[in-house]
């Protein structure tokens, strides 16, 4: 079972800000591991996500624009699914936002066709067997569909 996230304190935010500034902006990636060493009980990933998603500012929330989608597609071609690099190219979205947008909406490998009766029966059976573990159901039964599409279809069928 994953550990419950611990809320960031104002003091931790202050230390994180100080360490990121000290790490410099010389064009090289920051050493999040070195920064995390200054924050007990925080990992490099914790620090990177806190900085990129909450402290750095300038991130948009809500619907994606066509321009953002285009920057995301171009960056995926350039960097693959290296989300921190992709988010730097997109500029207005975090790595997590970029990953979710790509994996749930833009990836051309996603099956967007209408659901068949057979698929719907399989979906209902999978939910009876696995509960609402959407990622697991998607991976086992519908690898070409987006996880969110699987969940949404179930909710539509069960209305």
UniProtKB/TrEMBL annotation:
What name is this protein filed under?
Homeodomain-like protein
User: Which residue ranges run through the membrane?
Assistant: none
Q: In this protein, which residues make up the domain named HTH myb-type?
A: 1-55, 59-110, 112-159
Q: Which domain of life is it from?
A: Eukaryota
Which species? Patellaria atrata CBS 101060
A GO biological process of this protein is: positive regulation of transcription by RNA polymerase II
Q: Cite the InterPro entries for this sequence.
A: Homeodomain-like_sf, Myb_dom, MYB_TF, SANT/Myb
Domain called Myb-like: residue spans:
7-55, 56-106, 107-158
Question: Which molecular-function annotations from GO does this UniProt entry contain?
Answer: DNA-binding transcription factor activity, RNA polymerase II-specific; RNA polymerase II cis-regulatory region sequence-specific DNA binding
Q: Give the record's GO CC terms.
A: nucleus
């Amino acid at each position: 079972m994953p550990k419950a996230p611990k809320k960031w304190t104002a003091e931790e935010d202050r230390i994180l800000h100080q360490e990121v500034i000290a790490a410099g902006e010389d064009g090289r990636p920051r050493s999040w591991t070195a920064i995390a060493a200054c924050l007990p009980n925080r990992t490099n990933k914790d620090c990177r996500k806190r900085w990129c998603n909450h402290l750095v500012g300038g991130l948009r929330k809500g619907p994606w624009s066509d321009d953002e989608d285009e920057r995301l597609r171009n960056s995926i071609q350039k960097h693959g699914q290296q989300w921190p690099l992709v988010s730097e190219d997109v500029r207005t979205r975090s790595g997590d936002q970029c990953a979710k947008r790509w994996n749930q909406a833009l990836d051309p490998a996603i099956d967007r066709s209408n659901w068949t009766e057979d698929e719907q029966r399989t979906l209902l059976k999978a939910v009876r067997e696995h509960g609402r573990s959407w990622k697991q159901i998607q991976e086992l039964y519908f690898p070409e569909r987006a996880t969110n599409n699987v969940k949404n279809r179930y909710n539509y069928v069960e209305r």
